[in-house]
Write a structure and sequence with these properties.
There is one protein chain. Helix content is 37%, strand content 22%. The protein is of the alpha/beta class and 367 residues long. The protein has two domains: 3-117 and 354-366, Enolase-like, domain 1 (2-Layer Sandwich); 122-342, TIM Barrel (Alpha-Beta Barrel), CATH 3.20.20.120. It is globular and about 60 Å long. The structure holds (2S,4R)-4-hydroxy-1,1-dimethylpyrrolidinium-2-carboxylate and magnesium ion. (2S,4R)-4-hydroxy-1,1-dimethylpyrrolidinium-2-carboxylate (0XW) is lined by residues 21, 55, 136, 193, 195, 241, 263, 294-295, 320.
């Protein structure tokens, strides 16, 4: 089988409610990039990457130049065995992991379709029927956040990510954390995500003010060293997100003792292949994981669902139904939240059929 053509679309994804994060940053409409690989045997593979440019060093319009640059390696290549072809891509063009994430995803879709199997079977096999979901709560007034948490709780959600730091007022953040903790009662997991927006001083003051509560902190500060300092002084469990993006950073966070949980995002690592290697390292380190991506619609959500359920349940903290936060849905048959869980399709490959009317005119075609 040979790759004959690569088609890219850019699709704006609009959040159902403006998503506010630390430092006044928001996700209102974010550009997603969809990639389709066509082969000489008529099989097609789909990939997606939706970077949030103020969240990680990646942007949607950076994807097409990378795919164009890689065209000499990809056109005419056998797509079966994604890791071998990705290794050739890495040898030809280093870095640009977020753009390569969409490519790696499309190669896995093709490989699993060629095997006539749902992708999770090729990623190691099912270890659970479906994966637990967390609900991410936009950083707004504490009572509004408590209301969002209560609605998600009523749907069965038991893990809540409380966004903090939007107005640089740590006392308001303390009120947010307390309001959500109160709204969901004892038991559910509640964690406060600063998205790197706090100094150690701010994070420590806020953490000390909620020390009586059962909570976790997520990436309060930019550096791993600063996160480790906050964890040590505050004595509160910590999830690392932005700082964990490859094997070296996972090992460093583990050595610093600040990684009780880590967010493995496909596009942060460079796709399913690289995220799976990170997942396996975390299993060795005995670190619990969120397996997800930055943002995205149905193709991304399908990909992370397949990887999530191949993880031993004890170490999979949760995953994210990203397509549920945005509109449009690019594939009507993508996986959706059901009883607060997410399950991949049993169809071959990723199991999604993107709607080309929703995708619109392609951004670029390489052949
Ligand atoms: C990347 N986000 C802003 C979107 C996902 O829902 C999770 C969140 C994060 O920073 O963890
Ligand atoms: Mg985060």
């Amino acid at each position: 089988m040979k790759i004959q053509r690569m088609t890219l679309w850019q699709v704006p994804l609009t959040s159902h409610e403006t998503y506010r994060m630390a430092g006044g940053k928001t996700c209102d409409t974010v550009e997603s990039v969809v990639l389709r690989l066509d082969t000489d045997e008529g099989l097609t593979g789909w990939g997606e990457v939706c970077p949030i440019p103020h969240y990680l060093p990646a942007y949607a319009r950076g994807v097409a130049p990378v795919i164009e640059e890689l065209a000499p390696v990809l056109i005419g290549a056998d797509p079966i065995g994604p890791e071998a072809l990705m290794a050739r891509c890495d040898a030809f063009l280093q870095g640009h992991v977020y753009a390569k994430s969409a490519l790696d995803m499309a190669l896995w879709d093709l490989t699993a379709k060629a095997a006539a199997m749902p992708l999770y079977r090729l990623l190691g096999g099912r270890q659970m029927d479906s994966a637990p979901l967390y609900h991410s709560i936009t950083c707004v007034e504490p009572d509004v956040m408590a209301g969002i948490a209560a609605t998600a709780y009523a749907q069965g959600i038991r893990q809540f990510q409380v966004k903090v730091g939007a107005d640089e007022d740590w006392q308001a953040d303390v009120a947010r954390i307390r309001a959500v903790r109160d709204a969901v009662g004892p038991g559910p997991l509640v964690y406060a995500d600063w998205n790197c927006g706090a100094t150690t001083l701010t994070a420590i003051r806020a953490a000390q003010a909620v020390r009586d509560l059962d909570i976790m902190l997520e990436q309060p500060c930019e550096s791993l060293e600063a996160c480790a300092e906050v964890r040590k002084v505050a004595g509160i469990a910590m999830k690392i997100d932005e700082s964990a993006h490859d094997m070296g950073s996972l090992l460093k966070a583990h050595a610093l003792g600040c990684m009780d949980v880590v967010a493995l995002k496909l596009s942060k690592f460079g796709g399913l292949s690289a995220a799976r290697r990170g997942r396996d390292l975390c299993l060795h380190l005995k670190t619990m994981m969120t397996i997800e991506d930055t943002w995205g619609s149905d193709i991304t959500t399908a990909a992370l669902a397949h990887l999530a359920i191949t993880t031993p349940p004890r170490y999979l903290l949760n995953t994210c139904d990203l397509s549920g936060y945005v509109t449009p849905r690019v594939a009507p048959d993508g996986p959706v939240r059901e009883n607060a869980r997410l399950a991949p399709s049993e169809r071959p490959g990723l199991g999604v059929s993107p709607d080309e009317i929703v995708l619109g005119d392609p951004l670029a075609v390489y052949q």
